[in-house]
């Protein structure tokens, strides 16, 4: 009998699953998605401004070497590819309203998370490779008359920056975004289970 009483006290001490407030979850999800879409929106604006600047540079500056123009063109191709991806992700998050159909919205978030992690995995390296090749070709003419130490400093700092962003900033940035999306998806799934 003593074991039964102990078992009952352990069973009763188990934490009860808390019911989530629909309004609170929807508010948190909207806030989280607004943060992600806001970052995507400003990334789109920055990319368009940079593309316009690169276009002006390529067509209105007189470069002697075709390698310089080719370098700018390669950079622009990488930027256009990146712009297409972030515009697609932005529209994917904005096409559904969470209050209209939460199940569709949850599916949209899962699709966004899957495509974002898959695309950012392979595309980021392609993007960095295109930027590196483009800048390398661009710097050939731009640094033509620069002293050797300045060329080494420029190429070296560019390489260090790309390595830093690839191996330090990128993993942390995408891990943070992944954690936020996981939290939002988890909350929506728990909310959905409450009504099933």
TrEMBL record:
<feature type="transmembrane region" description="Helical">
    <location>
        <begin position="122"/>
        <end position="140"/>
    </location>
</feature>
<protein>
    <submittedName>
        <fullName>Uncharacterized protein</fullName>
    </submittedName>
</protein>
<feature type="transmembrane region" description="Helical">
    <location>
        <begin position="152"/>
        <end position="169"/>
    </location>
</feature>
<keyword id="KW-0472">Membrane</keyword>
<feature type="transmembrane region" description="Helical">
    <location>
        <begin position="40"/>
        <end position="63"/>
    </location>
</feature>
<keyword id="KW-0812">Transmembrane</keyword>
<feature type="transmembrane region" description="Helical">
    <location>
        <begin position="69"/>
        <end position="87"/>
    </location>
</feature>
<keyword id="KW-1133">Transmembrane helix</keyword>
């Amino acid at each position: 009998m003593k074991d039964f009483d102990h078992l009952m006290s352990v069973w009763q001490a188990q934490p009860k699953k808390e019911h989530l407030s629909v309004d609170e979850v929807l508010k948190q999800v909207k806030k989280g998605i607004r943060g992600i879409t806001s970052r995507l929106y400003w990334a789109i604006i920055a990319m368009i401004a940079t593309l316009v600047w690169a276009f002006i540079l390529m067509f209105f500056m007189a470069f002697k070497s075709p390698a310089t123009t080719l370098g700018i063109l390669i950079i622009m191709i990488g930027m256009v590819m990146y712009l297409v991806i972030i515009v697609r992700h932005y529209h994917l998050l904005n096409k559904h309203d969470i209050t209209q159909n939460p199940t569709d919205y949850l599916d949209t978030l899962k699709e966004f998370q899957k495509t974002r992690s898959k695309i950012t995995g392979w595309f980021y390296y392609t993007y960095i490779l295109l930027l590196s090749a483009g800048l390398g070709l661009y710097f050939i003419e731009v640094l033509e008359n620069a002293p050797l130490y300045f060329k080494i400093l420029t190429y070296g700092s560019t390489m260090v920056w790309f390595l830093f962003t690839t191996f330090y900033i990128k993993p942390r940035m995408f891990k943070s975004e992944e954690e936020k999306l996981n939290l939002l998806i988890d909350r929506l799934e728990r909310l959905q289970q409450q009504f099933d």
